[in-house]
Amino acid sequence: MLADRLFAPDPGGAFPEIDSLAWSLTIGVVLLMGAVAWSFARIKRRQQQMELAFRRQEAAHQQEINDIQNRFLTNLTHEFRTPLTLILTPTEQLLAEAADEHQRKRLTSIYRNAHHLLRLVNQLLDLSKIKTGSLTVHLTEGNLSEFISQTVQSFQAAAEQRGLHLAYQGCLKNQYIFDAESTGKITYNLITNALKFTRPGGQITVDLQEQTEGIRLTVTDTGVGIPPAKLPNIFERFYQVDGSSTRPHTGTGIGLSLANELVRLLNGRITVVSEEGRGTTFEVTLPFQPMGVPEEN
Fold first, then answer.
1. Are residues 163 and 272 both part of a single domain?
2. Core vs surface per residue 20-33: b (16+ CB within 10 A) or e
3. Residues of the signal sequence (predicted)?
């Protein structure tokens, strides 16, 4: 019988049939484990390939969506700019000729609101250009401190109308090489944000100082502040701390995002420190060099 053969020892006391069977089983188990491991590895590689293909497809799809959005914004802004310009130019001429005070007030209201819309359209266009890499830096030589001072002065009437005290404390010793357009937009948006969220009787301070790595522009307000949970998102495009339809402050969520993007375009950095109920400080560092000082690589 088979059992008798398997369990029958040889003359030396060994069990050759059992040893042979055990060796065969061992080899079989090893081969089976190898086959299973190879199958799992193949399945894993296939899964990774599918995940990679899916991520690439998602990235391509997202890029296509971004391209469509950028083209839409660019076309939309161009479509808006033309009629707004056609409104602003004759309105400005009528303002210069108007003698009646009531008529001047109405024309001023038309001009102010049309100009506000044009600025909003230009901000959207700037964001679109930054996204596509078509917005470039244009450096000029001049009095940076005086340039910022004039920007601050342009807000004095609006600050007084809101019952706010707006002060400028910058005084640079040197003339600077800087991008006037981008710097003006950064300053404009930071002051606009401060005006919007500072209650009557509050203080807004704009400071400009020289430092080793360039200049530091600081805009500080005594406004409502930003909740800590909202700070990480404050520079996101179209983000608003209060996004409800009943929020007390108007806005589109473009200004701070544009300021942040322009700072990055100029190879600078922007930080924000805020305490809810006490105010906010935005600090911008820009690598502008004094005239006559070679720029470091």
1. yes
2. eeeeeeeeeeeeee
3. none
